């Protein structure tokens, strides 16, 4: 009888060490999940920074266009004062100013289109990275579930084996 009790105590000690191992595995998984959450937060902050940068560039473009408009208005006012000097010279200066403004506006439109393309590319890239992270997290969670189920089944089998031994079924 004492041999059986000693064997049961030994089996209980093994079960305790197995439960301790399971707890350690769960703690490690918790740390990994915390790291993934931190990475997702950093990615979110990066996207917010990109949005702020886009707003800043948009404001800079608006200020540049306003400045060009101011220069055009100043040029026109100056040509009115120089009308007495010569109509042909004034027409030539206005034509030059219009050409410069059109060139500057065309350049600004091209830069804005490039910026829109770059932003769309960056957003698409971020979406891809987020999708990859989601897929990786789902894979890790699925693996953890399988591991937990296997551990639970092993624990149940060990418990049933111990009970069968203890009750003399085997």
General description of the model:
- This protein is an all-alpha fold.
- The protein has one domain (2-167).
- Helices cover 95% and strands 0% of the residues.
- The chain is rod-shaped and about 125 Å long.
How would you concisely characterize the structure shown here?
The protein contains two helices and no strands. The protein is an all-alpha fold and 170 residues long.
Mean pLDDT: 89
Number of helices: 2
Oligomer state equals: single chain
Into which percentage range does the β-strand content fall? Answer: under 5%
Instruction: Outline the biggest β-sheet.
Output: none
The poorly predicted ranges are none
Number of strands: 0
Radius of gyration: 37 Å
Q: What structural category characterises the helix and strand content?
A: mainly alpha
What is the overall shape?
A: rod-shaped
SSE string: HH
Number of domains: 1
Helix content: over 70%
Distance between the termini: 15 Å
